[in-house]
């Protein structure tokens, strides 16, 4: 996986906080993660975020007394993060979240009480092999009582036409109007998106987004193969039951004994 200025570098990083600010959803995520970190028994828990981005979750989590390390592939996202109040509490590393050695070196070899990969970030990896490598890397850096939290969207392919295409108006984000086009490949479980933003301040910006979607039962199997055991499964961060109507699945895993 390599840095690509057409994806989350450059203009997309500058607009990211308009799309996804630190809102109630981010704060609820941080509250849930803080609880999971302390459930391990750690007095001063150490956490690792995969795909830390501009700090949407890491910043409020660090305010709760969790020491947060973060890995991200895009230097532009980390550049935005470093400008924010509280960023000095975070420890960031540029690199690939499938690299076990990189994850270990981010904390100088200290095991993590909590590793989390939220907001569907695991789907940004190119294929199933990369997703499995990522889960195996996580298992290798978890403390003995450590926990992994994953948040994944539940795939909804109903809006694609027979040719595997769809166009959606996503409404206003910041001062811009966002339109998304997508092309589905069900054989590889991938969707290639092109997101266009029309803004009076920035003009027209476009960036590509890759998604390799994962079915909930497939995610559980991947985790099991990586040496992880399912502990909890929810339909959100409020402890909601995971049902056929859930739009996301939040799973908690521990290392298999």
Would you mind describing this structure in some detail?
The protein is of the alpha/beta class and 257 residues long. Helices cover 26% and strands 34% of the residues. The chain has a seven-stranded mixed β-sheet with strand order 3-2-1-4-5-11-10, with helices on both faces. The protein has a four-stranded antiparallel β-sheet with strand order 6-7-8-9. The model is unreliable at 1-6 (pLDDT under 50).
What is the CA-based Rg, rounded? 18 Å
**Helicity, in percent?**
25-40%
The count of DSSP E runs of length 2 or more, i.e. the number of strands, is 11
The sequence of SSEs as H and E is: HHEHEHEHEHEEEEEHEE
Please work out how many helical segments DSSP would assign. Answer: 7
Largest sheet: 7 strands, mixed
Global morphology: globular
End-to-end C-alpha gap = 31 Å
Find the structural class using helix and strand composition: alpha/beta
- Overall mean pLDDT stands at 92
Major beta sheet, strand line-up? 3-2-1-4-5-11-10
Strand content: 25-35%
The unreliable regions are 1-6
Identify the notable features of this structure and list them briefly.
single chain, 257 residues, alpha/beta, seven-stranded mixed sheet, four-stranded antiparallel sheet, disordered N terminus
Gist of the model:
Helix content is 26%, strand content 34%. The chain has 257 residues and is an alpha/beta fold. A 7-stranded mixed β-sheet has the order 3-2-1-4-5-11-10, with helices on both faces. The protein has a 4-stranded antiparallel β-sheet with strand order 6-7-8-9.
């Amino acid at each position: 996986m390599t840095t690509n200025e057409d994806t989350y570098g450059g203009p997309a990083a500058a607009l990211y906080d308009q799309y996804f600010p630190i809102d109630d959803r981010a704060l609820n995520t941080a509250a849930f993660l803080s609880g999971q970190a302390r459930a391990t028994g750690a007095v001063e828990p150490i956490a690792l975020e995969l795909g830390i981005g501009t700090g949407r979750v890491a910043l409020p989590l660090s305010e709760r007394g969790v020491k947060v390390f973060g890995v991200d592939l895009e230097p532009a996202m980390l550049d935005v993060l470093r400008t924010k109040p509280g960023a000095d509490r975070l420890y960031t590393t540029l690199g690939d979240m499938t690299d076990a050695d990189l994850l270990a070196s981010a904390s100088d070899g200290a095991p993590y009480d909590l590793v989390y990969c939220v907001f569907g970030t695991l789907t940004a990896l190119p294929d199933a092999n990369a997703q499995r490598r990522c889960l195996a890397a996580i298992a290798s850096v978890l403390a003995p009582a450590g926990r992994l939290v994953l948040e994944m969207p539940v795939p909804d392919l109903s809006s694609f036409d027979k040719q595997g295409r769809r166009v959606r108006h996503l409404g206003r984000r910041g001062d811009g109007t966002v339109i998304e086009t997508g092309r589905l490949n069900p054989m590889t479980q991938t969707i290639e998106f092109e997101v266009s933003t029309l803004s009076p301040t920035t003009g027209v910006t476009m960036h590509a987004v890759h998604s390799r979607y994962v079915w909930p039962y497939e995610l559980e199997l991947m985790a099991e193969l990586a040496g992880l055991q399912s502990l909890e499964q929810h339909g959100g961060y409020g402890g909601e039951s995971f049902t056929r109507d859930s739009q996301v699945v939040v799973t908690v895993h521990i290392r298999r004994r």
